[in-house]
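On clarity, I found the account of how folds are encoded harder to follow than it need be. What matters is that the chain and its backbone geometry are given together, residue for residue. I therefore recommend that a typical entry be quoted early in the introduction. An entry of this sort, consisting of the sequence and the corresponding backbone structure tokens, reads as follows:
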Amino acid sequence: MIRLAFLRHGVTGWNREGRIQGRTDIPLDAEGRERLSRLTLPEDWRDATLHASPLSRAVETARLLGNGRPVRTDDRLIEMDWGAWEGLRGLDLRADPDSGYRDIEDWGWDFRPPGGESPADIRDRLTGWLDSLSTRQESPLPPGERVRVRGTRGGPPPRIHALHPPTSSSPTSA
């Protein structure tokens, strides 16, 4: 059995501005990198194969958490296509009754931003990725590995604080 962990990427400037990033390749900002540098994967995950969206913020998050280990990317792991809403602020869209915007919690599987993709589209491409893992003749995991990590926002992922700070001799340092 393969155990999966889905992690959200570190902070970007657009996160701070409340902008919808989607597939726009916005890099991590300095504070996002600094925060990630204080975290590490739990002990039993530290040798896991790392997979990420091809966007730089996801790859860099995986590399930082994986202490520079290689990161495998796959286009099917890319963030949601928000179409015409990419780059806009959710607060502005919510204030415009003609935008059609609604909070993600109120979406169904078929809700689609203008020119973007639906949660059903995301489910289908991620299902295809998972199916490809199970149909490969050679396992994509080295013997004994159980975890895959990707840094996207497809669904309610664990928050970054679910990671453990690196072990140190001082219980107050992080």
Remarks:
- The CA atoms of residues 40 and 65 lie 5 Å apart.
- The longest helix spans residues 119-135.
- Confidence is low (pLDDT under 50) at residues 143-174.
- Strands lie at 3-7, 49-52, 71-73, 147-151.
